[in-house]
Amino acid sequence: MDFSSKNISFDKDSYQQEWIEIQDNLKKKVVLEDDFTWKISPQGSCLDQAGNVESLQYIGGVDVSFVKEDPSLACGALVVLNAYTLNVVHEEFEVVRLKVPYVPGFLAFREAPIILGILDKMKQKAHPFYPQLLMVDGNGILHPKGFGLACHLGVLSNIPAIGIGKNLHHVDGLTRSGVMQFLQGGESMAKDVIPLVGKSGQTWGAAVLSTPDSLKPIYISPGHRISIDSSIRVVKLCCKFRVPEPIRQADIRSRIFLQKFKGSENLII
DNA sequence: GCGACAG
DNA sequence: ATCTTGTCGC
């Protein structure tokens, strides 16, 4: 018998076999074209001939926060914003204990279940602010296997999803310094959108300077049921600051919620 | 072998 | 991801 770590191990490696297979299967369902009925209308909500709202109304932003003192304690947040005022119209939180580690390339297995739980709860209640689109703090197809957190959430919720990375996950020869060279190497042209073309020739998304004065790009890639171009269009409409408002609000509010939670009576989770 | 590796 | 104070600029 072999009682070594071969059979019994609870570290990162023990999850990967299973996770790779799940990613491969979910990836077969991903849609990288626009697949929604609403319109992206920069000037505000618009109506069709019958007077029905035709434009995108509610954008969901998702994030998961942690505290240093207790690294397995996590707070998932889903905030819903009016797509044009960018005001928060609804927020949901869920505090849980995470049982799996963060493994680069497998972020979804840590963070997606919390968000999917929240979405499911809203859907069952036929909640009026159930989001039409998700903006995710993490990548879509810009991922070693072409299936990041935004794809994972999109496919399993069947909601169009966009991935936003604040840092570049190096894939297909793409590097941070390479992107920065491109951003500076341009002439006097207003190059605020750099297509992320890997050495294989594939386009993985775009590095975008999301506000007039930002020096550090965000990395946009489609997650599900939306194209790269549409992803960029929607995200640009949401950027009061470098990080698009839905994600920024989810980040801020989940952090506050978790701080209050750990500071109050419910330490028994 | 070495470095890189979303959150 | 997490923590933090000061500080620069409009």
Automatic annotation (TrEMBL):
It is found in: Cytoplasm. Pfam families: Endonuclease_5. Keywords: Cytoplasm, Endonuclease, Hydrolase, Nuclease. GO terms for cellular component: cytoplasm; nucleolus. One of its GO terms (biological process) is DNA repair. GO terms for molecular function: RNA endonuclease activity producing 5'-phosphomonoesters, hydrolytic mechanism; single-stranded RNA binding. Gene3D superfamilies: archaeoglobus fulgidus dsm 4304 superfamily (3.30.2170.10). This is Deoxyribonuclease V. It comes from Dendrobium catenatum.
